[in-house]
Protein: LacI family transcriptional regulator
Organism: Streptomyces canarius
Amino acid sequence: MSGSPERVTIKDVAARAGVSKGAVSLAFNHKPGVSEATRERIFAVARELGWTPSATARSLSSRRVDIIGLALCRPARLLGLEPFYMDFISGIESVLAERSCSLLLRLVRDLDEEIALYKEWWRGRMIAGAILVDFREDDPRVPSLQGLGMPVVAVGHPSLTGPFPAVWTDDASAVTEAVRYLAALGHRRIARVGGPADLGHSVIRARAFADTVRDLGLEEAPQVGTGFDEKEGARATRTLLLGADRPTAIVYDNDIMAVAGAGVAAEMGLTVPDDLSLVAWDDSQLCRITHPTLSAMSHDVHHFGAEVARVLFDVVAGMHTGGHQVPTPSLIPRGSTAPAPGAGPS
Amino acid sequence: MSGSPERVTIKDVAARAGVSKGAVSLAFNHKPGVSEATRERIFAVARELGWTPSATARSLSSRRVDIIGLALCRPARLLGLEPFYMDFISGIESVLAERSCSLLLRLVRDLDEEIALYKEWWRGRMIAGAILVDFREDDPRVPSLQGLGMPVVAVGHPSLTGPFPAVWTDDASAVTEAVRYLAALGHRRIARVGGPADLGHSVIRARAFADTVRDLGLEEAPQVGTGFDEKEGARATRTLLLGADRPTAIVYDNDIMAVAGAGVAAEMGLTVPDDLSLVAWDDSQLCRITHPTLSAMSHDVHHFGAEVARVLFDVVAGMHTGGHQVPTPSLIPRGSTAPAPGAGPS
């Protein structure tokens, strides 16, 4: 354990890092003027010495530079159940903690509340910048917040996020890979259980799914929109499996719905993967402990969150930053996918 | 979707709730003077009308009344993997969202940093109160923060939390129940994989475990402290199973370690539950999707977090509040526990 952080001063940090006190201040205030390498060295030294900028070193009348805002329009329960957002937040926090910054987290009911909240936070000088997530098509946050001058990173495809610097994954390519993989296993009726139909990334995935099904000459199969939770994932799966043309494979938009879908298959006497193949999305630890294990479109969500935070600090520091694509989810085949019933392996 | 929250005024909320504007203000500022029932009615109406207190309605020079602080001395990665804190935070957020409040979340490296941070947040008028977690024995936060006048809820047993109002679960009784259950199944060598040895609740569980083992005349069996993550849970399980006196049952301090332990058992050719019984703690969805499913000491962690937030609002409002115990985790027997090898059911 390091000594008391109150004994170490900014002078000590500057001396150890071989820079001026001003450079330490610039680094911690996320202002331009120090290179990324120097900034990282300063953070490393501060961490080693246990030093953090104190209230007295910051003018309380000016804007907070050590707080980032994140509003989520999601039910509280889902936040604790769906691994995506907590893993994403853990990635954000990993970068914030290095820089002695905090996350101001709020659950909102709708985008009107979110817009009002960001205006309040920004005008109240509460936050240095904001992370916007879950973009809709024609998202009202774009016109409402772009004139504020608030540093923003938008988590979503650049076609959705207006002028804000975007960080995104290529959902369309990932969906295409999932469908092609199942088609190669001989599946002809592939359904999809998606997220809320008004989310931009749901729309992108739905389009890519329909396009790939058509391109491959597969049977047209239903896509069902849900609220991402286990119950809706189970209900959607039950509906699909009770339909006249039962699919032989289902692609899910997250992992808890795929886990629930596997449960429904068992309850209906279907064996996964012999009778039904399942592909999950996001690939948390859940996918590795089910029986059978779940094939998934896998990406490093913690790293995704960390990248979002890093890009936001660049934006706050006034560094010119364009969009930034993180790695595309890629298929990890596990025990829940197999050749379609009656089809040999391709 | 409700209309724009900027069109609805505090007057509308007061009229609809049948109270004065002042009462609405008191409710949202978490001040005494309105009953809990009235407060809840005001929140319900505000929610219905889509109204939230705006920046202009709050004096920016005064203390923020709509932000609660939470510092966690945990690795960022663990926050995304261990279901406990996600579910706990989702519970806190469920209550905060109802009251249009936000959570200021920070990961800290040690308690010195945490103490300095809370002093800064409180003196900087950033937060209305704080949630302190992961108490140690002789926790330095008690002497350092008790003189601040900051409203605090301490999540931990009252023997650890000094003068702060505490919200806690009875860990000792829960450990005793777990050991008694396994002993009733004929197990004589029961080991425990615990959390970090310096955490107060680890100490309480370790003592209760040792006491129960002695009271029941069982063989003295090892308890191993870990950092709560999967790797350490796996390593501890491997060490226990390679020892001369292999235990026939293991109690874990969370669920991801129990899941990892089940994996280690399989890797060593042991069948759960025939050769080895496992009991998890906290009982997230993980325990229900493993094969076999995991018996667990189960409690509603989301509700625990919500209770903590509610008690904190009472403290902020100046309402006298003593300690508050939430329900004790209770055993949910599932597929990972069975009579000890060679023992009949008791």
